[in-house]
Write the structure tokens for this entry.
Amino acid sequence: MFSKSFKKLSIASRNLSTSRQNNIKVAVAGASGGIGQPLSLLLKQCPLITELSLYDIVHTPGVAADLSHIETPARVNGYMGPDQLKDSFKGADIIVIPAGVPRKPGMTRDDLFNTNASIVRDLAKAAAEVAPKACLAIISNPVNSTVPIAAEVFKKAGVFDPKKIFGVTTLDIVRANTFIAEAKQLNPLDVKVPVIGGHSGVTIIPLISQAKPSVLFTPEELKPLTVRIQEAGTEVVKAKAGAGSATLSMAYAGARFTISLIKAMKGESNIIECGFVQSDITEASFFSTPLLLGKNGIDKNLGIGELSPFEKDLLKEAIPELKKNIKKGVDFANRT
């Protein structure tokens, strides 16, 4: 569980008024899946959530019934099948989308594209119609392409707000924090490493030069550490030997991002998370950077800061791949 984070949230919740303005409804699309179930469990534990709306094509009533027995304030409702999709999104402040097929051994995130692209498109269409002001937190891979798809859907519907559509890249940050803490024998709760770029392979750029506390690695140590962060998803896929991809760590990361959004919506200051968003920071039209979150999504894009020579080379390598991924998503959205 989140230990320190949830203790802080529990203290904060005692001071919340019961007025409607403090209510938060979170919808999870794909709530019965490998990521969706543990993600929903973690969100049910957050005392800042008033209502948890769970949607999937199968099993959602059972998942909702199970979670509803947990002694936390969030009311849980389950919705199942296409006919109930829009109802599940109505009134949502945040819609989290982990829906899609998982990666299997030998598959790249790109291999997931055709199936997951259609799923994200259809979910985005429903959100644009019934919850156009909600923040979208997209987990479904390949994030580098699915986020542009959702953005195009919202643009076509005339309700696009670039401050409110996010690709959740938090797992890259969580992994960077963990791996660096292990290497330097630090408490991972104390390590903070921004990760910029995208959410697959060479597009993942951990800014170890900006780590807090400051850490130093030799060039011989830095390259394999960076590659491990970039390929950590494959590490899990291989270890699960056909049984799936990163679900539990992704659920943790998705919950962390969602709870940060909620805290910012409720007026807490200095809430910063990295996220893949529409951006003019680089040549790529979408790019992940640290974001200052606020009541309406992004308050400020904090940019990439000063990069080391090694990180500048990583950025040069990432941009062409990122632009290709983004174009693939935009093209898909515009032809369907």
Summary: The chain is about 45% helix and 15% strand. Residues 309-335 form the longest helix (27 residues). The mean pLDDT is 93. The first strand starts at residue 25 and ends at 29.
